[in-house]
Design a protein that fits this description.
Elements: E1 3-4, E2 25-31, E3 34-37, E4 40-43, E5 47-57, H1 59-94, H2 99-135, E6 140-147, E7 152-156, H3 160-175, E8 180-186, E9 196-197, E10 213-214
Antiparallel strand pairs: 1-8, 2-3, 2-8, 3-4, 5-6, 5-9, 6-7, 7-10
Helix pairs in contact: 1-2
Amino acid sequence: METGQPPGQWDVPPPPATPPRAMTDIELRVSKRLLWVGTAAYPLRNIARVYTFTLRPKRKEAVFRFLARTGIILAVAIGLSVIAGLISLANEASDSGSPYESSQSSGGGGGLIIFVWICSGAALIYFFVEMLSVVTAQSHYVLAVETAGPSTAMVTSRTPQHLDQLVSYVAGALENPDTEFQVTVEQLTINSPTNYHFGDNVNMYGGSGNVGIAA
């Protein structure tokens, strides 16, 4: 952790103590009028807002989405089963003169119904696991840095007070661009950004495997 500034500049207090290091730790630093979040650089003049908030999963939406999908899957499965049953009955009626052909038609209709319900069960299991991953996901207290463009950087820490203090340090650097400091924070790993509420009006792009930097 380093703190430096040219002589005669605004007196900036030292950054807060860094939390214990982990595999996901990255450096957040201000140097030469740039804010570095890991290997991503943001010009200080382009930063529009710095704030903290709790990033919460969309648990309620995930449950409602699962229930809606369940209703659709069951409706389709029941509809296909009814159609398969009617087709089977029609074939049995047309083949009533031949017991062998009648049994073949009945077996074909039954096989189609079994296939429909196996597919429906697999889809329900998949969507249930997807819902469970959102419902059981953790909330994260994060520091967000919004730019004048569509980019937003987000980092987290085990200590919320650490992030609250960082807001004041980054704000001080915005007022005094020659200020320099460096602290350690943690990457925010989000597998599916669409499953989270991103504060007031924060958009996160890039699909899956995001690590807290949206661009």
